[in-house]
Amino acid sequence: MQTSTCQWIQGTGWSLPTTGIITPQLVLYFGATSQLAGDALPVRELVKRFPNAVVCGCSTAGEILGNRVFDESVVAVLVQFKSTRVHAIAEAIVSNADSHDGGRRAAEKLKAPDLRHVLVLSDGLVVNGTALIEGFRAALPPGIVITGGLAGDGANFQKTFVGLGGEVKRDQVVAVGFYGPDLLVNYGSRGGWEGFGPRRRITRSLANTLLELDGQPALQLYKRYLGTRAAGLPATGLLFPLELTKSATEETGLVRTILAVDEAKQSLTFAGDMPEGWYARLMKASGDQLVEGAAHAGLAAVAIDAPAGSTLAILVSCVGRRLVLGQRIEEELDAAIGALPEKTAAIGFYSYGEACPAAGSGLSELHNQTMTITVLGEKM
């Protein structure tokens, strides 16, 4: 497997390679919302330059290229496989309630005896990420891992885009299937957040919308905790996600990030399900904790037996981590990439949600506030 990375900057265009040119079967891009809206010129240029490749990507809350983070740009990686085949599909998600069925429909279009892995890039606002991944799992054969993430829109939470070929749209999911016996894939996902304060029971919810905690209006209670920061919701909610556990005694659970608030209903909408009867509590993290979590994600993904310099790491990290880390943001990239095989090409984006199996689990699910890494390669 060979890779080559490049970047598009307004007024400059693509920095496409001029030497060591490869013939990619896959071109994967991540870009700012402003660059993917309208005619999506950077994407159209990629499609024109590589007409025989699968060209796909999504909008971001920051573009990752190597160990650096960019804004208002588009980054891309060209991937030439030795024998692995790739096939991608796009599926509309017409509403939040369509998330599960949309995931199932997309998965059905990818199924084949030699399917080895699925990379999912989804709308980041309309979709219920939990239901989407469950829909994929319901249709795919056992053992097929799903990784990827939900598209971002900076800290704006207004619109996200996902594209396949020249079609860059809102409210859709793009899934890439990787096929063949030579594909090597590994993954890791870690957070670094810690819970604090009392656990409160979810007494009323609807899918990924939280209505009541301990019988109290969810938004009212959450604002009480945030204090003066409440005026900046939903963006300030990224600094204080919620931890979900099935019981009041579990030490760790799933993390959920706020996507929207509804003042009239006094509700909070999250990237994934908020099941009634579960327990929720606030979380916080220091920069050191998040950097350490990124390093552990890299260590979890490192075991891949591919030739040196022929692996690709796709990094999907949550926008909330970026807000907490601030000027230290590239420290988490250094930590994650530093744990990977030498000369691994790295690309990715800051997201509204991450898809990956949890540590110690083979079942893919929707995470928030994690650094999630997918490493791809091929057998020698």
Would you kindly provide a written description of the structure presented here, covering whatever features stand out?
The protein is an alpha+beta fold and 380 residues long. It has two domains: 2-190 and 288-378, no CATH class; 194-284, no CATH class. The protein is 20% helix and 40% strand. The strands form four sheets. Strands 15, 16, 17, 18, 19, 20, 21 and 22 form an eight-stranded antiparallel β-sheet that branches. A seven-stranded mixed β-sheet has the order 2-1-7-3-4-11-12. Helix 3 packs parallel to helix 4 (129-139) and helix 6 packs parallel to helix 8 (329-338).
Count of DSSP strands: 27
**What's the overall average pLDDT, rounded?**
93
Quick one: overall form? globular
* Share of helical residues: 10-25%
**Terminal CA distance:** 9 Å
Portion in beta strands? 35-45%
Evaluate the radius of gyration: 20 Å
Number of domains: 2
Please describe the biggest sheet, giving its number of strands, its sense, and whether it closes into a barrel: 8 strands, antiparallel
In DSSP terms (H or I, runs of 4 or more residues), the helix count works out at: 8
**Sequence stretches where pLDDT stays below 50 over 5 or more residues:** none
Broad structural category: alpha+beta
Q: Briefly, what is this?
A:
Helix content is 20%, strand content 40%.
Topology record:
Layout: E1 2-9, E2 13-14, E3 26-31, H1 33-36, H2 41-49, E4 54-59, E5 63-65, E6 68-70, E7 73-80, E8 85-92, H3 99-110, E9 115-122, H4 129-139, E10 145-150, E11 162-164, E12 167-169, E13 172-179, E14 183-190, E15 194-206, E16 209-213, E17 216-217, H5 218-226, E18 242-245, E19 254-256, E20 258-262, E21 267-270, E22 279-284, H6 287-301, E23 312-318, H7 319-325, H8 329-338, E24 345-351, E25 353-357, E26 364-367, E27 371-378
